Amino acid sequence: MWWNDDYFNRKINDKNGRVWSFKVWHGHIEGLYTQKIFFWDSEKEFTGIMEFKDDQAIHLNRIKDRIKKLVKEKPYRDKFVCPLKFPLENNY
Q1: Which of 3, 31, 40, 79 could form a Cys-Cys staple with 24, CB 3.0–4.6 A?
Q2: Those residues with Cβ within 8 angstroms of residue 86's Cβ, 6 or more apart along the chain or in another chain
Q3: Collapsed DSSP state (helix, strand, coil) of residue 92
Q4: pTM
């Protein structure tokens, strides 16, 4: 299920002016509660997924903190870079 909270769907500018978008999904995969934060820049040059499974699942406020950290810290963001298939709702 996609979380449609306003915070999760807004665009955020980093300090270099790059615009980042986010989409957050949660549900069960293979019987385990899973949360996924999808992210991409406006050109879709940099895309990725951060995933939390089962006992790693975090509160909504901490998801917001992770989104902020993805925007601010390139080395942190680079750990989760992977190609995404758009539109997300049809592919994940």
Answers
A1: 3
A2: 44
A3: coil
A4: 0.92
